[in-house]
Design goal:
The chain is mainly β and 314 residues long. Helix content is 9%, strand content 45%. Strand 7 and strand 8 form a beta hairpin. The longest helix is centred in the middle third of the chain and has 21 residues.
């Protein structure tokens, strides 16, 4: 994990219980044999002590996991050349099993939730397809060509605007700036830590603390300015509508008026073309609009459930 700090909190002895006399809580590193009956330790049954009952191993240096004696199966230190229990050579010996780091048990999941959710999603998708996507092909009569043309009217006036100081335009007038929060920054504010226990497989375990940084947000101020500029801006529009294949533009001031206070000029032009099919209409481009004459027959897709035209199919 990025920025995670890992720190050892020390080494402690694992515990084991005697399989023969049932003596509890024997030390995994310093008590290889049961002090009550002399039975050897079973390394597969070592376990972590309870919180507060740990016995620290002073000056511990990890020398490797214990190994089983190939002859008598007694656990021996990693560096042992011969078994201290039966004297057999340790060549080809295998490591003892480690105890897994304890984790919180997973929450039980209800197996039937996933299939039910899947069935619901399938039903929703089918409903959407059936209600809104399913379509059929029909041939309809073109009853009319409608059009609408609009021209925006712009006026050259003085207006107030606002921007951060570095974005104030060069022709701004009467600029006034003040401090204002612009964004935030993340400041480190301590750590969130957790501890883990790692079995070293030699009768001890290591307590490891893992910490990730915690952050808080702090405001970052900037200089916000208000100012006046002279600009062309929309103030009105003129509109003309009609039918037929010869649309016209409405009367408007020239688009090249001088930039003096109060002057007006023609701005953005917009055109809407509607092809009437039966009792419905489709907004189309000029090519499709002129493709069909009044009274012509046009094949178009129709939504099967609602009867609405799919205009993109023209």
């Amino acid at each position: 994990m990025a920025d995670e700090r890992v720190e050892s909190q020390g080494f402690y002895e694992m515990l084991w219980d005697c399989d023969h006399c049932d003596t509890k809580g024997l030390l995994g590193k310093s008590q290889r044999y049961c002090p009550e009956c002399g039975a050897k330790q079973n390394p597969d049954k070592r376990y972590f002590p309870k919180e507060g009952d740990e016995k620290q191993v002073a000056g511990h240096s990890y020398e490797g996991a214990d190994r089983y004696c190939p002859a008598c199966n007694a656990p021996q230190a990693a560096k042992a050349k011969n078994c201290t229990h039966c004297g057999s050579p340790m060549d080809g010996s295998a490591e003892v099993k480690g105890v897994a780091t304890p984790v919180a048990p997973p929450k039980k999941r209800r197996w039937w939730i996933a299939p039910v959710v899947l069935l619901v999603l399938v039903a929703i998708c089918f409903g959407i397809w059936y209600r809104f996507i399913r379509k059929r092909e029909e041939t309809l009569t073109v009853t009319a060509h409608r059009w609408e043309r609009t021209i925006a009217i712009e006026q050259f006036d003085e207006r107030q605007e606002g921007a951060w100081s570095e974005s104030v335009p060069s022709d701004a007038r009467m600029s006034v700036c003040h401090t204002r929060q612009r964004t935030t920054k993340q400041i480190r504010d301590g750590e969130d830590c957790r501890t883990e226990k790692h079995d070293k497989k030699d009768g001890t375990f290591e307590v490891v603390q893992k910490c990730t940084p915690r952050y808080r947000s702090e405001p970052v101020d900037g200089s916000w300015c208000t100012y006046y500029v002279r600009r062309w801006q929309p103030v009105d529009q003129v509109r003309l509508t009609g039918t037929g294949l010869a649309p016209q533009w409405p009367n408007a001031p020239p688009a090249t008026a001088a930039a003096t206070l109060g002057a007006r000029r023609a701005g953005e032009r917009r055109e809407t073309l509607v092809l009437e099919l039966g009792d419905q209409g489709c907004d189309v481009d000029d090519v499709v609009w002129r493709k069909y004459a009044d009274g012509a027959r046009a094949t178009v897709d129709v939504r099967a459930s609602s009867g609405k035209l799919v205009c993109s199919s023209l």
